[in-house]
Amino acid sequence: MAHPAQLGFQDATSPLMEELLHFHDHALMIVLLISVMVLYIITCMITTKLSDKLILDSQEIEIIWTVLPAITLILIALPSLRILYLMDEINDPHLTVKAMGHQWYWSYEYTDYEDLGFDSYMLPTQDLAPGQFRLLEADHRMVVPVESPIRVLISAEDVLHSWAVPTLGIKMDAVPGRLNQTAFITARPGVYYGQCSEICGANHSFMPIVVEAVPLNHFEAWTSLMLEEA
């Protein structure tokens, strides 16, 4: 989760988020180099005492300021296209979970298990246990096995919502009447927090997303317990 006064992204807990962080650093270094070069050129132009009113154009300068931006765009576009294809790649998921947005809570359905589904509401402040986070904790977490490809089908029942977990590199719109899908792999066990990222009404800020990644044997025990309670 995010920390007070945090300037950068959250730590990556999925291979996709690691790729996004690497691309962010790559693009940021290119932007920094361009900014330094432009600042240097402006400084030289302001401080120089030389002038030549007879030069109307320069073929060499025209070539340079056409070729350099083209190379820069290629250096940014190629890694970006690679990540876009990685984000759309969903191969043989081990588990499929359907997330449905409502005003104002999430409901989850494990489509590989019959009768396994639940609603997830935000825990009120007075019900929080020590160590739990205000506005981020839910009464039912979406539990998934660690190091397993998970497919999430996302839709909404009433208005636009958005299912987003920053540390997993996921942000997918929940559109009424439309079924979107995304996928992720958790690299390590943990609890990962997110929130609805599409303004959906008065209680938009009160529908958190909590994904809990556990070892496979713990996940199987959890599913057995949930099916018994159902």
TrEMBL record:
GO CC terms of this entry: mitochondrial inner membrane
Cytochrome oxidase subunit II transmembrane region profile domain ranges (all copies): 1-91
One of the protein's GO biological processes: ATP synthesis coupled electron transport
Domain Cytochrome oxidase subunit II copper A binding residue range list: 92-225
Pfam families xref list: COX2, COX2_TM
Annotated keywords: Copper, Electron transport, Magnesium, Membrane, Metal-binding, Mitochondrion, Mitochondrion inner membrane, Respiratory chain, Translocase, Transmembrane, Transmembrane helix, Transport
Subcellular location as annotated: Mitochondrion inner membrane
Gene3D superfamilies: 1.10.287.90, Cupredoxins - blue copper proteins
The reaction(s) this protein catalyses: 4 Fe(II)-[cytochrome c] + O2 + 8 H(+)(in) = 4 Fe(III)-[cytochrome c] + 2 H2O + 4 H(+)(out)
GO molecular function, one term: cytochrome-c oxidase activity
Membrane topology: Multi-pass membrane protein
Transmembrane segment boundaries: 27-51, 63-85
Family: Belongs to the cytochrome c oxidase subunit 2 family.
Name the UniProt record assigns to this protein: Cytochrome c oxidase subunit 2
Species assigned in the record: Collichthys lucidus (Big head croaker)
The encoding gene: CO2
